[in-house]
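We treat protein structure as text, and this decision shapes the records that our systems exchange. Because each token names a local backbone shape, the row as a whole describes the fold. An entry from our holdings is shown next, in its original layout:
>
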Amino acid sequence: MRAKLSYLLTAAVLVFYFVLVGSRGVMLIQSGTLVTVTFGVAVLVLPVIGLWFLWKNTQFVRRANALAAELDAEGGLPVDELKRTPSGRIDRDSADEVFARRRAETEAAPDDWRSWFRLAVAYHDARDTPRARKAMQRAIALHDGRPVQQL
């Protein structure tokens, strides 16, 4: 729940920022000179890109959460079996051991979205965020029946 609130707060701050920047771009365009119109258009591009990125990221999070809920209903969510340091951080060797098992599971069933979901969690636990995201994107695509690209 805390993660959702943090995400919503961050998204709200970003939208506020995009509106603020967008209004400055409109003000520049309304000035009417060639230089200010050019700068105004350039300034308006930033919020458009930001809103697109925020929208795509929100879609990704919603789809990943839907897969997590479906996997939870099936009883297939990965169990947190990781050892932790006294400070609460995940032990690297423990994460690597779980990752090796998840990778083998995924290699055995490469078309199963469930194994890709669990592999994404293992990548995340091993602090490999880019690969975690790619594995989750693959799990989403497999679940939705879309063609997938190689990881």
Q: What stands out?
A: The radius of gyration is 21 Å.
